[in-house]
Amino acid sequence: MTAMKSMKRREKTEALILFSRLPIGPETKTRLSPLLDEGQREALHRSFWADAFAAALELRDRADLFLYWTGSGRPEAYSDLIPAALELREQRGRTLGDRMLAAARDAFEAGYERAAIVGTDIPHMRPDSIRRALDLLAEADVVLGPTPDGGYWLIGLKRAIPELFDISAPWGSGGVRIGTLERARELGCICAETDSYRDLDTPDDLRSFLEERHPYGSATRACLEGLLGKGAV
User: Fold this and answer.
1) pLDDT averaged over the chain?
2) The whole model's pTM is what?
3) By CB count within 10 A, which of 85, 122, 135, 152 is most buried?
4) How far apart are the first and last CA of the chain?
């Protein structure tokens, strides 16, 4: 693994950290196979990026932006897709929890007072939902953005709390959100939640996304309609 450069804090007190795989067909959104082949999944992932990056850029007035990536490729190959406002960092750690904890530690060691870690597979997330999460950290120690499958799409923190990323529920399972909240409350943390979103992991998720006509997610909608045709999911 490449050496990790230290995160340099600038004038802002908040960090918004996007977590994502690189859009490499064989490695991304495998649960959408066989509906989508490798090239189509890569195209869809690129559209997720376009929507997630657009939402993040609406928050650069208050937060410094980071993209923590993983995958077998190199992010330089996607420089035409990644806005210059996003600083690149490679994820490190064995589990997703390990990797999120490492990113949180980076932020707080750099002097940020609040940090939110967000996935990129919710192209319809509204920037105001992230703003609300950061605002809730004025009173709460931990803020989660729930997903209907029992996970979370966002975690907001005021300090790195290792125990929150060491829960019994396997990452990617339906018990992650409840396990995290239970652990936080055991530690005496004040918890809050921002808006709920469905992450797009399955064909049913894609169908729901197309039916719900969200105000955000235009790149993903256009991609899906181009790949599958309207009403074809």
Assistant:
1) 92
2) 0.93
3) 122
4) 39
